[in-house]
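Section 3.1: Structural characterization of target chains.
Under the original work plan, the team committed to producing a structural model for every single-chain target entering the pipeline before any wet-lab resources were allocated. The record below documents one such target. The sequence was received from the expression subgroup and is listed exactly as submitted; it comprises 139 residues.
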Amino acid sequence: METGHQVGLTSAEIANIWAKYQNDTMAICVLKYALSTVQDTDIRSVLEFSLQLSQSHVEQLTAMFNEEQLPIPDGFNENNDLNSQASPLFTRRDLGALYPRSIAEIAQYGEDGANIMIDNRWLEQPPQAADRYQLANKM
């Protein structure tokens, strides 16, 4: 049912889109730099697609800020936040391996936090699938 009345964003929603704006403007800087140094054509096409996504996100978020009559965040930009003379990213294998490992650690951190909130009844636990191995052993 549509009421014709649009409710403004909550402070949590504003914080979320602000952070998303910051992340995407930073991604644009990193991707533009990476595109200036990449040699592999397959990687180049992935980076170009990623750049288009981030640019599209920034456009959508800017429209959202304008619609809500909120100031546009002072995001990252090429003039102030990009050193185009820096050496290529991830030239060492250990640095390239750091990124996926960091993602896994952050995901575990998020899961631990969610479990604490579930245990304290601050968050509902979503329905879980049955443990197939336990079910198989009961037969």
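Residues 90-139 form one domain.
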